[in-house]
Design goal:
Length: 110
């Protein structure tokens, strides 16, 4: 639940125009944390799946539950990684615009 709430908040903020570099940095840090969490959850589920499939006494239900969990987490991770890319691209554009503004200001006679 926390992951989906954070994802929704990140999507909402990432779609805004005129974010400051500080806001972009904060959003990117949150998105990075979410991506790390999702990767860890996927790795944990994959470990559990290996254990479940190695145990001949395990039922199909437990394996299916873990597979569903992984299949739910992977699209969330892909979306989060895409969001991180978008945030980084926006941050580069903000920095470039700032640098161009500074260069223009330096060239103008006073």
């Amino acid at each position: 639940m926390l992951d989906s709430t954070l994802s929704a908040r990140l999507r909402e903020h990432a779609g805004r125009e005129h974010l400051t570099e500080s806001e972009l940095r904060g959003l990117t840090e949150q998105a990075d944390g979410l991506a790390r969490s999702l990767r860890a959850q996927i790795r944990g589920s994959e470990r559990r799946l290996r254990g479940l499939t190695a145990d001949e006494t395990m039922g199909v239900t437990e394996i299916a539950d873990e597979l569903r969990r992984v299949e739910t987490l992977r699209p969330q991770l892909q979306e989060t990684e895409q969001l991180i890319d978008e945030l980084e691209e926006t941050a580069r554009a903000v920095r470039t615009a700032w640098l161009l503004h500074q260069a223009d200001a330096a060239r103008r006679p006073e």
